[in-house]
Design brief:
heterodimer; A: about 140 residues; alpha/beta; 2 domains; two-stranded antiparallel sheet; 3 helices; 7 strands; B: about 160 residues; five-stranded mixed beta sheet
């Protein structure tokens, strides 16, 4: 649209946002496809990558980092001392006895930087609590 | 009679654009381009009913395929030929030759065609990342055929 001011014709600038809208719509659909509401980037846990394809069982996971052990979202231990390991045993025993099924399967999310000495000590407590079948959660390429 | 000029209708897309501009960073923070999977692992279960005789125990041990992580190399017990695979330093993900390990495991599979289990004996200082990579190599050969898909974790060697 043109305006006439003091005899001069001034062209009114207009921003064409249609093509930008197209671009943003495609970007939005792409990001929505990979959207994961459970993804918590603040959690300091680096899972290892693997070519495994087995589906992760829907179960409360034992989360193991170099500094703490969590059962689901509950922090149950901080270190590897005997008292801390006893806390891991008691929490796992409580969960194992509390479930109706006699499943001995435990889902474990373990930081890839952890040394086997620490993992072994926690798995031994899990075995004492009744879990002998482990599923280590790993990252695979999506799709 | 003068005709009234009707201005062309224009869709105001600016608020929609503003909404999308806010949505994109929020989605970018919660996006995950990797999927999750599970690696099944069992702890070694030993029969406690009756202690096997020495000969029987040795016979059982010969049937097992084991992957032992040592200070500066890997050992595949139950394979043909030389079972050692040097790492050229401490065995880390960067130092291990996974292709050569695959060849050793394929030889072990030829010797034990019906065996699905492999006992992995890590060191105390072996990283979990290395264990998962070793399990990957144990699971399938280079052509995608099945090798030893049921890994068992043994206690840490010093």
């Amino acid at each position: 649209m043109r305006k006439i001011r003091r005899g001069r014709v001034i062209a009114e600038a207009s921003l064409t946002v249609t093509s930008m809208m197209d671009m943003f719509t495609i970007l939005l659909i792409y990001l929505l496809y990979f959207f994961d509401p459970n993804n918590d980037p603040s959690q300091d846990l680096q899972l290892p990558s693997s070519s495994a394809r087995e589906v992760v069982a829907e179960q409360t996971a034992l989360v193991l980092s170099s500094e703490w052990v969590m059962l689901g979202s509950r922090r149950i231990s901080a270190g590897g001392s005997p008292d801390e390991l006893r806390a891991v045993y008691e929490a796992l025993k409580e969960q194992h006895d509390g479930t109706d099924s006699d499943s001995n399967l435990l889902v474990v999310k373990c930081d890839k930087r952890i040394l086997y000495e620490r993992l072994d000590s926690v798995l031994r407590e899990a075995a004492r609590a009744g879990y002998t079948d482990f599923r280590f959660v790993v990252l695979t390429e999506a799709g | 009679m003068a005709r009234r000029e009707i201005p062309p209708a224009e869709l105001d897309l600016i608020p929609v654009l503003s909404l999308i501009v806010h949505l994109v960073p929020m989605l970018l923070l919660n996006v995950r381009f990797m999927d999750m999977a599970a690696v099944p692992v069992k702890g070694p279960v030993l029969p406690v009913v009756e202690a096997p005789a020495q000969e029987k125990r040795e016979e059982q041990e010969q049937k097992l395929v084991a992957l032992r992580i040592e200070a500066e190399g890997l050992v595949v017990e139950g394979t043909e030929g030389d079972p050692r695979l040097p790492c050229g330093g401490p065995c880390t993900v960067q130092n291990v030759d996974f292709a050569a390990l695959g060849v050793l495991l394929e030889r072990a599979k030829v010797r034990h065609p019906g065996e699905r289990r492999v006992v992995i004996v890590p060191r105390k200082d072996s990283s979990f990342d290395l264990l998962i990579r070793l399990m990957d190599v144990c699971r399938k050969d280079s052509s995608g055929g099945e090798l030893f898909p049921e890994p068992l974790l043994a206690g840490a060697s010093p």
